[in-house]
């Protein structure tokens, strides 16, 4: 009897969980949201984690400090950008999930990268940092219930919900995986 109830409960809750179609974000974020590889936010985050870890392991050492054009970021700087952006997205998600209505400002990714000192960091430390940040992201999104996922706030003067921020985190990584493959390797 308890086995049947557990199956029913799992099926019922899965069918009623928020999906990508429930994500609310400004138009400029929809490229990232659509790049996520699942309609389930936690699966999308986990898939992008797996995809990125594999890519990081396959990047030749001679390419780590490579930029495909003048003024473009090196792969090392790109990794730092991904880490920084992930922290911003999850901070916003946490604030909005906790019903904090304080509008949040945008961040200047170019300035952050210029001031990150990424090119003087050890590659292994950066890879480990990405893994730690992503593990924290997975734990955070696993902790949210549907009400929290659908909670909204204002970031960069636009309405956005927690769910969208999860898909943005996943899709942002997938977007940069494609860029690295197409332009750097």
If you had to describe this structure to a student in words, what would you say it looks like?
- The structure is a single chain.
- The protein is mainly alpha-helical and 185 residues long.
- It has one domain (20-184): dinb family like domain (Four Helix Bundle (Hemerythrin (Met), subunit A), Up-down Bundle).
- Helices cover 62% and strands 4% of the residues.
- It contains eight helices and two strands, in the order αααααααββα.
- It has helices at 2-15, 30-35, 41-58, 75-97, 109-114, 123-143, 146-149, 162-184; strands spanning 152-155, 158-161.
- A two-stranded antiparallel sheet has the order 1-2.
- Strand 1 (152-155) and strand 2 (158-161) form a beta hairpin.
- Helix 3 (41-58) runs antiparallel to helix 6 (123-143), helix 4 (75-97) runs parallel beside helix 6 (123-143) and helix 4 (75-97) packs antiparallel against helix 8 (162-184).
- It starts with a helix and ends with a helix.
- Residues 5-15 have low confidence and may be disordered.
Helix residue percentage: 55-70%
Rg on CA atoms, Å: 18 Å
- Broad structural category: mainly alpha
- Major β-sheet annotation: 2 strands, antiparallel
Strand order of the largest sheet: 1-2
Uncertain stretches: 5-15
**How many strands in all?**
2
Q: Could you tell me how far the N terminus lies from the C terminus, measured between alpha carbons in angstroms?
A: 55 Å
CATH architecture: Up-down Bundle
CATH 4th-level superfamily: dinb family like domain
Find the CATH topology.
Answer: Four Helix Bundle (Hemerythrin (Met), subunit A)
Number of domains: 1
Query: What share of the residues does DSSP label as strand, in percent?
Result: under 5%
**Count of helix runs:** 8
CATH class: Mainly Alpha
